[in-house]
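Structure ticket #2291
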Amino acid sequence: MVQEAGLISFLRTLAIILLIFYGIRLVLRYLAPILLKMFINKQRKAYENTSSSHQEPSEDGEVHIRGKRKSQKQNESLGDYVDYEEIEESEEKK
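Resolution: structure written out below.
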């Protein structure tokens, strides 16, 4: 038996689509901020763990200076510096 698409079945389909659409919007409106807050807290804790693990405990009044290490590769790749002087040519050529 073949059913024809009537106005009632079209309206029912349209109503189902609209209910699903607005249902998803309603759920995301309340669920997205909660998920975002959880993600931000997780990232903040991970950052705090990595930043605190690199710091060494120090006593009051102690000073630590951390500098960049010079790499030999960087100095070698610059090449040789050549100092030169300009020589003015005399008007007479020998």
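Closing remark: The mean pLDDT is 80.
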